[in-house]
Design a protein that fits this description.
The protein is mostly helical and 326 residues long. Helix content is 55%, strand content 8%. The strands form 2 sheets. A two-stranded antiparallel ribbon has the order 1-2. Strands 3-4 form a two-stranded antiparallel ribbon.
Length: 326
């Protein structure tokens, strides 16, 4: 720069600014179920008789069609926009909720009056609220640890959540092309597993005559049919997680089990008798989960597929597992 013209110098510098990250919103479809839905369901169920069949697939198709018709009338699906943010159950603490209301009240008073005394009151209330949230969070995780002192899986999962909060799926991985890439990648992994199972079955078939000759092979000719007591026990012991493929939300399914048990038992027992698992129960909603939060989110191999299966399929699997492990 010519000093004869000006004694000012240009200062060049870089400014690193991170964009404001907004919570992504998405549309979800849910059924609004309240205390009166069970009674409406019972009334509607009595007007839609079931159809007997010897085919598990036909029974499952009719059951889904029947449940869809009933639920669409008494609790139709409603679309709602929700933000994809993390939930904090400890914020539902009654004391914390009360302090939050007081904080908002003191803030409105301060913004209206602009007085220093009201600012100090608001500041004190905010401090009390933050302290209560901290205590509630500590109590929340302490209760989980104390309740599961002998459950290593829950303990490790809790520590993992505290030390490595789960990361959201990057927006660029939500495109149609990336979904297809994930589907192809996960399908390849499943194909490898199937090939491995097939090879193991071939080995087992080759060893079967020798095992029969030695008397080591304990064959199971048929599965035992299931009664209501066994069904109820298995249903109540299963997790209440719901798949998007379920017509009846799992919690509601459990609450009306006594009403639909005849249909469910017919599906399960027909499947056990014929050895055919209903095709509709083989579908799943597969979601990719990053194996570790510090891994590269753009590499497909760093994800594991999490399959959300239909609830009735889980019931059949649990019953079969219990009979095979007796």
């Amino acid at each position: 720069m010519d000093l004869a013209i000006s004694d000012h110098f240009c200062v060049f510098f870089d400014v690193c600014m991170s964009p404001h990250i907004q919570n992504r919103s998405m549309s979800v479809r849910r059924r609004v179920i309240n205390n009166g839905t069970g009674l409406l369901f019972e009334q509607a169920l009595s007007h839609t008789p079931s159809q007997p069949s010897d085919c598990a697939d036909d029974l499952m198709i009719h059951f889904n069609s029947r449940m869809t018709h009933i639920m669409d009338n008494i609790a139709p699906l409603k679309t709602k926009r929700v933000t994809d943010n993390q939930k904090a159950p400890w914020k539902l603490n009654p004391v914390a909720k009360l302090l939050k209301r007081e904080c908002r009240k003191s803030e409105r008073m301060w913004r209206k009056s602009k007085l220093q005394i009201h600012y100090q009151i608001h500041k004190e209330m905010l401090g009390k609220y933050n302290l209560e949230i901290s205590k509630a969070r500590q109590s929340f995780f302490s209760n989980i640890i104390n309740r599961n002192i002998n459950n290593a899986r829950v303990l490790f999962s809790t520590v993992e959540k505290l030390t490595n909060p789960s990361s959201q799926l990057p927006p660029e991985l939500s495109s149609v092309n990336k979904c297809n890439d994930f589907a192809s990648f996960f399908k390849g992994k499943i194909d490898k597993i199937r090939l491995n199972i097939a090879s193991q079955l071939q080995i087992a078939q080759n060893l079967e005559p020798l095992a029969v000759q030695r008397g080591d092979l304990n064959l199971m000719p048929t599965f035992d049919l299931v009664d209501y007591e066994t069904l109820e026990k298995n249903v109540q012991n299963l997790s209440s997680s719901t798949s998007e493929l379920d017509i009846l939300p799992t919690n509601f399914f459990k609450s009306v089990l006594h009403l639909i048990s005849a249909d469910v038992l017919q599906i399960i027992n027909t499947s056990l008798q014929t050895g055919i698992f209903p095709s509709s129960l083989k579908n799943a909603v597969v979601k990719p989960l990053l194996k570790k939060n510090n891994l590269d989110s753009s590499v497909l191999n760093n994800y594991r597929p999490i399959s959300n299966l239909p609830f009735i399929g889980k019931i059949i699997e649990k019953i079969v597992f219990n009979q095979l492990t007796l």
